[in-house]
Design brief:
By secondary structure, the protein is of the alpha+beta class. The protein has a single domain, classed as Roll (Nuclear Transport Factor 2, Chain: A), CATH 3.10.450. The chain is 30% helix and 45% strand. A hairpin with a 2-residue loop joins strand 7 and strand 8. The longest helix has 15 residues. The protein is globular.
Length: 142
């Protein structure tokens, strides 16, 4: 196990503990975060903090289970399962979605670049349609 993987796994442990300060401490000041659920991305540690705080408010107690990790130098790829309950407002491109009280559970993948022991880039791929279905905001698939 290498240093880049250690940094990424520490970030997941911080998420599972709901520790915002620990989550943010794993990022470089110039870090960039992008997600299929947030195409505009988030730039810099301050914006990443705001984004992470909003996610912890929307899904308190969120839990990630890493199912696969591939590390090559400073690059880390992670497959995970996530489970959480939607108890806070969710900011979406269409506006704010009030809490549904529903539990979500799905798989995702993330790709990280780590530099000098900090996350420099994070790209997150999630099935947003499945998330909306589980929240009861889209019809169930066939």
């Amino acid at each position: 196990m290498g240093r880049a993987r250690d940094v990424v796994e520490a970030a997941y442990r911080a998420w599972n503990a709901g520790d915002l300060d620990a989550i943010v401490s794993d990022y470089d000041e110039k870090a960039k975060y992008w997600s299929t659920a947030r195409m505009a991305g988030v730039h810099g540690k301050a914006e990443i903090r705001e984004y992470c705080e909003s996610q912890l408010t929307t899904f308190p107690g969120i839990q990630f289970v890493i199912t696969n990790v591939i590390e090559s130098g400073d690059s880390v790829a992670v497959e995970y399962r996530v489970k959480a309950t939607h108890t806070g407002p969710l900011e979406a491109t269409s506006g704010t979605i009030p809490a549904t009280g529903k539990t979500i559970e799905f798989a995702g993948a993330e790709f990280f670049e780590v530099h000098n022991g900090k996350i420099l880039t994070e790209r997150n791929y999630v099935d947003s349609l499945e998330l909306m279905r589980q929240l009861g905001l889209m019809p169930a698939g066939r």
